[in-house]
Amino acid sequence: MFHSKSTLSLTPRPVLSDDVAQILRTTQTPTIGSSSGAAQVQDTALVFEGGAMRTAFSSAMVEALLEEGIHFDWTYGNSASAVHVATYLSQDPQLARDYFTVFPGDPLFGGIRPFLRGDGFFNARYIFGPDAQVEDKSMVPDWEAIRTSFGNFRISGFNGKSGETVHWSREDMHGLDDFLRHARASASLPIIMPPTKIGTDIYFDGAFGTTGGMPIDAPIEMEGFDRFLVVMTRTRSYRKSQTRFTWFVKKAFPQYPALAQSMLDRHARYNKARDWVFEQERLGKAYIFAPHRMPISNGTRKLNELAETYEAGLAQAREEMPLIRRFLGV
């Protein structure tokens, strides 16, 4: 597990140095199609943090990387960022955009009625299903494009019974339905969504795993990476607090004690993982792409706010792309 193989130090988070800030001020923003040349990145892992609807911001990085022709050998995600894995590897920037700026307007996407029916506040079976669409436009990723893509991937889930964090890869999936089921499992938020069954096991959101939602453990433990491009959905100064509903969590999941415990101490694991990532940035082993501000919550469904957040993410990604390219050496 991550904590047993990596030393996490609680050091202060650094800020951009003066020379980096100067590069940002003097570099012109590239336009779509102005790529400096396609590149395959082999020595660095692309890691997407989850965050439900906040991932409208990080989804823009998919578009920015694809327009630059930057292809990673390995991409990692959990929770809502499982969508990023799909849209990036299938090279579908339009779906990356629409999934978080158009799709949430669909009444079937979620809400009180689906929640009362037992489908969840976010209707996971529909969102991660073969019939997902908006105005006759499919919201389903192209599995064949993912299967034959330029890179590999892992998405993470949390086994509700054993408490194990599982990192699924392409080899664990044998078709579109299988991929969608694993993506749904990775995003199955307790209470907000029903859990997902795969085989004989019950899975919840991967954010309740080893690192509390920052899927940095998979590239380290599974593939041995020591360099990372980490795409966050929280600002650099963010610190997660312990849940205020301790009493409820203890009562709500008597059949899943490992999940209940994970929910109670998730904040500590998440903050520790973030501190470790920022330490890697200080050592020159990580590039962190984090929002300057995050104006929406994980439950935001207002399309104008989601679109504004996406555009802010895209503008920032294009602005920082020269620095990202320098870090990647491409």
TrEMBL record:
Keyword Aminoacyl-tRNA synthetase: no
Annotated organism of origin: Candidatus Corynebacterium avicola
Residue positions of motif DGA/G: 205-207
The entry's keywords: Hydrolase, Lipid degradation, Lipid metabolism
Top-level division of the source organism's lineage: Bacteria
Protein name, entry field: Patatin family protein
Positions in coiled-coil regions: none
A GO molecular-function annotation: hydrolase activity
Catalytic residues in the record: 79, 205
InterPro entries reported in the protein's UniProt record: Acyl_Trfase/lysoPLipase, DUF6363, PNPLA_dom, YjjU-like
GO biological process, one term: lipid catabolic process
Domain PNPLA: start-end pairs: 46-220
